Amino acid sequence: MIRIKSRNFNPQLGLALLALWVTVLPQIQAQEAQLPEMGSPAEALMTPGAERRLGQSFIRRVRETLPLLDDPLILDYIESLGVQLLAAAHEDPNGFQFFIIDQSVVNALAGPGGHIGVYTGLILATETESELAAVIAHEIAHVTQRHLLRSLEEQNRLLLPSAALLIAGVILGAQVSGDAGAAAIAGAQAAVLQRQINFTREYEQEADRLGIAMLAQAGFDPYAMAGCFGRLSRSGQITETNVPELLRTHPVNANRIAEALARADAFGARQRPDSLRFHLTRAALRERAYTRPEQAIAHFSATLQSGRYRELQAEHYGHALALVRAGRPEAARAALAQARQGQQQLAEFVILEARIDLEQGQTEQALRRLRNAISLAPEHWPLRLAYAESLLKTGRAAQAIDELLAVSRLRPGNPLLYNKLEQAAIRAGNLGATHRFRAERLYVEGERELAIKQLEIALRQRDLPYHEAARIQARLETWKEEHNTKPNQRGERR
Length: 494
Ligand SMILES: [Zn+2]
Description:
Elements: H1 11-33, H2 41-45, H3 48-65, H4 72-88, E1 97-101, E2 108-110, E3 115-119, H5 120-125, H6 129-144, H7 147-154, H8 160-172, H9 180-188, H10 190-217, H11 224-234, H12 245-249, H13 254-265, H14 276-289, H15 293-306, H16 312-325, H17 329-340, H18 347-359, H19 363-376, H20 381-393, H21 397-410, H22 415-427, H23 431-444, H24 448-459, H25 466-485
Parallel strand pairs: 1-3
Antiparallel strand pairs: 2-3
The chain binds zinc ion.
Zinc ion binds at residues 1, 138, 142, 204, 207, 250.
């Protein structure tokens, strides 16, 4: 898990952590008061419902304070890696949610409620797909072993305020802020934190051990865990001021690497070629790392010319992305053809080609292309989202709403989708739907009172079709009921 250090502090996040602390604490106390004395310690500390609410508070704070990358294809790729590992571990993927933090930090983190965050810096720093999978497997193991809750349990229950601080601190680790408020609390609880660090090593070992087994069972190279830690700790990127976060928060010593190697020996080496998507994802991240597309074009042209690349198709793909961003669709199409090498149906390629079509004003071709791809893979949400966005760009807002609703059924509870739905409803001039989607977004963000107000505004719209009004009314009644019976964000009952 996470070792807290005083450098690299982010004041903004500190405030958020403070808020998380304030938000979370009463919930824990409220839960604890009504708990029977049974079950494993972690279960005794927090009910599944309380843990889910804690997870929601956590992800909301993360969204408010960290730059999240919402690129559907990149997120979908990371999710697919997670799902492969979870399947190998016989874990239900529905208990996990992945998110990507758009920072050059080399790290990953596991929060409450199965939320696993991967930094773009990590994706770029890993040399093989097995290494990336190794770090994700390690974080998954923290979740399956309930390390977060167990670490809370190790605190004396009388010290719950500091335990709540630990939730925030442990989760967001090295980024815990040094701003005045949080620093004061951290100072007062320094002894508690020190104890936390002591039993953290045990959890790190456990996460390594289970992560390595997960890797092997999923067909990745089990030596990648040791390889990743070892290579990062030796690599030239480590200087006094630039230690990868992964090492700061997951301290690596020779002993830990040796243990990881020994555990991998039990499974034996596995040769596994990296998937094309691994390389495409990294090329897309490298491309976006350049502020100006011309810089990205120069980068990919140079690597292609000199032959200094890991994967030729991915290099052409990055080049094509840069060209389309620079407003050169024709050149982009040529680069894409080089990247594709006959792989017609890969979503990365289909979506980029549709984008090039749109750039060239070939609207119908873009829509047809995406529709064809969706007919072959109806559950593929990045394709459907690209289709919805293309519809919106071409002024078909009502159709875009239908498509976005289909995506929201594939990925329920995603605030970004409701945000897009709201934008589409505005474009369609549908005020009732605008307020309804705003309400849905507020609801999944945990803002129940504001959500209810938005539904009430939606109901007051003139010309609201009867079935729409009935749906809103039903939703409103459910939410009001919940609001009256369940604890709200601050754990109060009404
Ligand atoms: Zn860890």
